[in-house]
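Fresh eyes needed here. I'd like your take on this protein's tokenised backbone:
***
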Amino acid sequence: MSKTEQPTHGSQVLLRQPEGQPDRVEELRLLKRTFLIMCVAFSLNHATVTTPFVYSSSVLQHSVGYIGNAILNFGTMLCSLFVAPFVNSTIGSKNSMLVGMVLYAVYVICAAIAAATCGDYDEGQGKCEAATAAQWVFFTTGSVVGGLGAGILWLGEGAYFAATAEKVAALEGRPTMDLTKELAAQFAAFYLAFEVIAKLSATALEKVGMSYAAIFFVYAGLAVVAALMFTQASTVESSNAGPPLSLCGKAMTAVALWPDAKIWLLAFTNLTFGFAAAFMNGYVNSNYTTPELGSGYIGTLTAITATVAAVGALAFSRLPSKQVAVFLGSLCFIAIALICLANKAGWVHLSGWNWGLVTLYILQGLGRGVYESTNKGVFADVFPGAASPGAFGNCMMQSTFAFTLCFLFSDFLAPALVWIVLVLGLLTTPGLYLALAVKRREDEAAADKRPAP
């Protein structure tokens, strides 16, 4: 076998290390290719899921959609803490992602069947007025499966991302922090672009007469295609995987980080985004956007938010540091809160803004761009190697905790949401700097304990 020849086993690429230096150029090419495959496959698979999730409360009977979405959010939160870390530690990040993608496909299939089994669909209103037993069974069961899939998929993606950044940085001789910034922006751009395309495509297909049940079946097929696509990616695992864990240790990987102050100091970005998204989707949409522009434009405005987030993620990656990006992202969420508080005080009047309301959605998009990209890089920097899976499990738990809390207690929390967003936004940057300071102190202490060469 020649120096550059590579034996393969299935989709895993095993780079042979003969005498002398390995072929770094070829290894880099394979790593970047496999990361691109991951970005496209993940983004396509996830985009197919967001559509039934968003439309479920209208396409399905309202209570079915509401309860199903609550189950999915709550299931994702629990899975991120206990199930996903165990799965990732047992079968690795790539296989975890494949399991998550398959479970996502099952969720979309169940949503399609549920949409097709409405008892009384009002064509004029475009709503399901009465649910059948089949609709309840398929959507609630699918939501349980979807919650498991989300927790497993997102944690696996975080571990896969961190391992790729670590290996590319080592091969290129660059700081890992530079690679986490670049790769996070690349991932976020694909992820958000596919989300926009999926939402606009669903609207277009519905306009030409396709039922939502048929649309969901098409999306389920695309979810399967995405999973098959990802089988062509290479296996990438961190070289610092840590010691073997017991079954209980694997399940508690995320919870084991709770005594670490850094995991909570970094939580503010996740919590701010979660509460801000709930505030925009609930309070702003119903109190400002619908009276000014009509509910029909909400889809267009949310597509603008995702588009701005995709562009913003790429732009933020060019800033000199992640701290600057996080600061700017937090300012966007703070600005949303301040504008709405100024409206309550009578200093500004959103009731007359009309299309000027797009400003709020642009600010939300810029903040989301930081959440979807820079935030991922920060978690990978602060919790490298064996700590990454547990850290990304906590990252997912924190954001879904905010979503779930707002979802279940929307009426109670609605008056306070704007203040919650403001306070969390103000705490985001100080929390990041404190986490980085703790990380530096830990690294210095570890360096002092290492024996001199």
Observations:
- Residues 43 and 278 are 22 Å apart (CA to CA).
- The first helix runs from residue 24 to 59.
- The two ends are 37 Å apart (CA to CA).
- The chain has a mean pLDDT of 87.
